[in-house]
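Exam review. A common question shows you a sequence with its structure tokens and asks you to describe the fold in words. Practice with the pair below. Do the first one on your own.
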Amino acid sequence: MAPGRLEPGDFIPPMLAVTAKAPFSESGWWFETKWDGYRAIISRGEALRIYSRRGHDLIAWYPVLKEVGDSVPKQVVLDAELVAWANGRPDFHALQQRTADHYLLMVFDCLYARGRWMLHEPLAIRLEMLHQEVQTRGMIVLTEGVRDVGERYYQAIQSADLEGVMAKRLTSAYLPGRRSPTWQKFLVLKTGWFWVAAVQRHPENGWYWHLAERRGGRAVPVGRVRAPSDWVAPMSQTGEELQEPFPVEVSYREITREGHLRHARVRQWHPSTLA
């Protein structure tokens, strides 16, 4: 992407992070909260535009965001996360349903300011510019973070039951639309054992396991996960309920109000299920 062809107000795809194998601490890294919301690119030329990760108009989805114009200077492009706030914490369900009483834009990067794109500048410089150009006001909140001590910061985020931590190398450039190891995320996940009650084959993505848990003597569906690549389905299995469900340990972010697992991933399954 050539930033010189873009102007404030245009869409620029956000930079993405890889998932770290484990939380770490390292000199020269910046650690900040990973918020449980929707990515938001705040791009203001003469008019205010707020784009989703895929370029959709977030103001059309959340008209209250029009009020942000009073808190964002002209001719800036910012990277942020749109968060629904309820009872002192993020509420992803309220964000999805658009039922929250209060929304915040947690701003963590500055991509354009003072007449120039800053994508090739190191993160440390972009953070300085962000705090010079923007202030916490109204729905705009500048995020905080710490240097070097990622593991301690992760422990604090885990204790607060927030989504996770973003780790960013302070020398990192901003790579629009790309996933880079110079940005990594530590997710706070829960684990639990469930039953694989059915399997389903996807024509492109392989097998999925449909999960259930036993409540009151009956199996209640809780979602699905992609089956491990080394699991071999029984030859007769075409995609149906299993006569003999088997246990599987799953990591997940949370159980939604509808009783479904968010961000579920397989950790291990009973050895007897290996074909």
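Now try the second one, then compare your answer with the model answer below.
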Amino acid sequence: MNFSQDRDLLAYEPNVFVEVPFTAQERVSVADGLVSGNTLTSVEADFVTAGVEVGGVVLIERVAHEVLAVIDAGTLSMSAVRGREADAAIAAKAGEQLSVRVRTFAPQATLVHDLLLRLLGLSEEDSLGEEAVVSLGAMMRLECLGTLEMVYSAAASISGHHEAVLAKAALYRERFRRACREAVIGVDLDGDGRANERRRLGLVSLVRS
């Protein structure tokens, strides 16, 4: 399971789901969306079969919203983007016959997730995988930055010399590398929920026996 969700990417890059759609996996695309308060309904969509999940991003008329709950195949509870996940839901602009798209960068996040675990020396084969990570906030940030670097680098390779995309690819590459160099991650070796070690990516330092 990834450390980040699609909604987390919006804090770093609010336009990523619109700016480089060709690098995302599109799960839903309909034009009959009905929004009332925090509820989105569609006769054409099947959000369940499409694999839409809490923490996902739904674009309504190209504006990103967070998925709060999948009520049934044709109904989502959602919110305009919030500052924090714990904040109260923000009602979306009401309307009908709206374009609705659900896109995800979860496949790219999974690649970054697995890379980070390897750099930390964690492997499911050794019975120490993602469950051993205590510093979940730090790992979420690393995973977001790595995912954005991957997304914009892929977009740059597809779009050629598009200056804005190239600039963002370079920006997130540097931010990801710097964050990796600076990060210190707590690792729980004995399953008690507390960090036995503080690890840098590629380095280990013992802090508690």
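Model answer, second protein: The radius of gyration is 19 Å. DSSP finds five helices and nine strands in the chain. Full marks require stating both points clearly.
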